[in-house]
Structure formats: C-alpha cells, structure tokens
Amino acid sequence: MIAVDTNILVRVITRDDKAQAARAVALLEEQERIFLAKTVLLEVDWVLRNTYKFTRGEVLSALRSMVSVDNVEVEDGVAVEQAMDWYEHGMDFADGLHIASAGPNPKFASFDAALQRTALRLGIAEVISP
Q1: Cα–chain-centroid distance for residue 35?
Q2: Which tens digits make up the pLDDT trace of 24-51?
Q3: CB of 44 within 8 A of CB of 62?
Q4: CA angle 14-47-21, nearest 5°?
C-alpha cells in the first residue's frame, strides 16, 4: 500500500504541472492500493479553496472523485463520506470531518458561531460554546 501526500492529489486534480500530474496519475492507476489519510483530504480542501480558488461544488466533486477510485482506501471512510455530505449542505469540510470523527451524536465544543448554527440547522451534533 502507498500512502499519498496532498500534493499528489492536487497535481491530479489541477493538472497545474503537466509532468508531475502525469506521474501522479500513473501512481494512482497502478495496481497497488493507495491510502488516503483524512488529514490529506482536509489539506486538499484547503489548498483547492485557498490557492486555486475552487468553488465548494468543485472541491466536493474533486474529493468524491478521489475517494471513489477502485484501488483507494480512505482512512475512516465513513466519517469522510459523512463530512462530504455535510459539506454539500453548507458545513465547512474540516468542521464536518472533526464532528464526524467524534462518533455518533457527539457533543462538540467550539467558539465558532457559524459552526454552531450549521450543526443545529443540519441536526448533526450538539455544538456547545464553553
């Protein structure tokens, strides 16, 4: 199994460096299993939004395409899928991943008022302000 870094996925998604993109695609197309850490996916979201100015829909599409590759194993895939679903409905991907990783029906402490409102609207967790 090969664990990949954020930059491998970013090259595949953006094709901003043609030579590296070709090498990254070739790596992902090998028969060996590819491991995607959820922290790598978190970074991919951040890089695509902040560096490449991807929209929420573009980021979501990119993340979903990466995790659906046949030879890819995603760390905590259930939490990642849940976070992507919440992201689609307006929650920040990082916030969704943090909450989804905490297990079913968690209490989640945050000073982030927007997170509190979104979690309440989606009915996904009790977000408390300490």
Answers
A1: 14
A2: 999 988 889 999 999 999 999 999 999 9
A3: yes
A4: 30
In angstroms, rounded to a whole number, what is the distance separating the alpha carbons of residues 100 and 108?
Answer: 10
Phi, psi of 111 (to 5 degrees): -90, -5
- Rounded to whole angstroms, the Cα distance separating 98 from 96 reads 5
**Which 3-state string (H, E, C) describes 71-119?**
CEEECCHHHHHHHHHHHHCCCCHHHHHHHHHCCCCCEEECCCHHHHHHH
Tokens of 19: 């030579």
Residue 54 pLDDT > 90: yes
Question: How much is the pLDDT for 15?
Answer: 97
Q: Can you list the pairs that 79-86 forms with residues at least 24 positions away whose Cβ atoms lie under 8 Å?
A: 79/38, 80/38, 80/41, 84/60, 86/122, 86/124
| DSSP conformation class of 123 | T
Question: Do 97 and 38 meet the contact criterion of CB atoms below 8 Å apart?
Answer: yes
Show me where the domains of the chain are located. 1-75, 90-130
φ and ψ at 27, to 5 degrees? -60, -45
